[in-house]
Specification:
96 residues, 0% strand, 2 helices, rod-shaped
């Protein structure tokens, strides 16, 4: 075979390999970039949904204040008629 022909074949094969190498490197780079991007997106979406679901703070609070009645049972008893009675809590002492 002629040396010039061998050199041309070698150069064309090296160029083809170079193109394959560049295409493979670009493909791997693109794949890794998309993987990292999707991981970041899914992580952010997961945090957003967790925040929306677990955040149970109501926008409107409806409650009824517990107000002591003006006529306490201790005032009805004749035993405590002569003393001053102070109510420190309107809840029962055992928490019921």
């Amino acid at each position: 075979m002629k040396p010039k022909l061998l050199i041309e074949i070698a150069i064309s094969l090296l160029r083809a390999r170079m193109r394959q190498t560049i295409v493979a490197a670009v493909g791997v780079t693109f794949g890794i970039t998309m993987f990292v991007t999707l991981l970041g997106f899914m992580n952010g979406l997961n945090k957003l949904l967790d925040g929306l679901i677990t955040n149970r703070t109501p926008h409107i609070r409806i409650f009824r204040d517990i107000v002591p009645s003006k006529h306490q049972p201790v005032e009805l008893s004749s035993q405590y008629n002569t003393s001053y009675n102070f109510i420190s809590s309107i809840k029962a002492p055992n928490g019921r």
